[in-house]
Amino acid sequence: MLYHTPTKMVVDTELEEAKAAVLQLMNEKDKLEAELQAAKNILDNNRVGMTDVLVDSQGFPRNDIDVYQVRHARHKIICLQNDHKALMLKIEQGLHKVHKFAGGGSQPEFPSTSSNLQEVFLLEPFLRVNLVSPGSPAELAGIQVDDLILEFGSISNSNFKTLKDIGTLVENSRYKNVEMKIKRGSNTFALTLIPRPWSGKGLLGCNVVPLEAVER
């Protein structure tokens, strides 16, 4: 006598298989991100980013960095970023599949798949915080002395020209959220700053200075 597998049992099996597939992809993501970080560390150790020039004023390879190592690391980062983007798409598709098999209810619990590593690799610090006043909007936002600013609202290393750009943005953002990305040691944070009058001077209560290329 033939027995047909109940529909629920089939769905449960498919759900478990979909979960296992996503978890495997997440493990691959962790390994890939570790490789990305290792490559980024090479650039950090040489104090260069993805766009800094590797030749001196006379067109010769710079003697203060390992040019071969930096070029290799840059190439690897670009390749890994592309792999990371494709992998995150697969994870997203896998999670949708899991959600479908789960009956469209609450999302199954998985380790976080959100990663801003790819974005961070494309950002270079361009400002350093050298003063934060107690009780200021900057302190309340979580900004600390020696934080490196990767992004200040719409301003990043790619379009920053002078501190006047920051001043104009701040003045036009009174009582509005200014999204920031900062680098503190080896960690990167997203903060929200709200420029506003307070008991001290200015709208922020902090001071920033442009980074020299050698500091990046």
Question: Can you walk me through this structure?
Answer:
This protein is of the alpha+beta class. The chain has two domains: 6-102; 127-210, PDZ domain (Pdz3 Domain). 44% of the residues lie in helices and 15% in strands. The protein has five helices and six strands, in the order αααβαββαβββ. It has helices at 7-45, 67-101, 117-122, 137-141, 163-171; strands spanning 127-132, 148-152, 155-156, 178-184, 187-193, 206-210. Strands 1, 2, 3, 4, 5 and 6 form a six-stranded antiparallel sheet that branches. A hairpin with a 2-residue loop joins strand 2 and strand 3 (155-156). Helix 1 runs antiparallel to helix 2 (67-101). The longest helix is centred in the N-terminal third of the chain and has 39 residues, at 7-45. It is flat and about 65 Å long. The relative contact order is 0.12.
Oligomeric state, counting identical vs distinct chains: single chain
How much helicity do the residues have? 40-55%
Radius of gyration: 23 Å
Distance between the termini: 73 Å
Q: In terms of per-residue confidence, which ranges show pLDDT below 50 for 5 or more consecutive residues? A: 105-118
Helix segment tally:
5
Shape type: flat
**Structural class, from helix and strand content?**
alpha+beta
Overall mean pLDDT: 81
Find the count of extended strands (DSSP E, 2+ residues): 6
What pattern of helices and strands is seen along the backbone? HHHEHEEHEEE
- Quick one: biggest sheet? 6 strands, antiparallel
Number of domains: 2
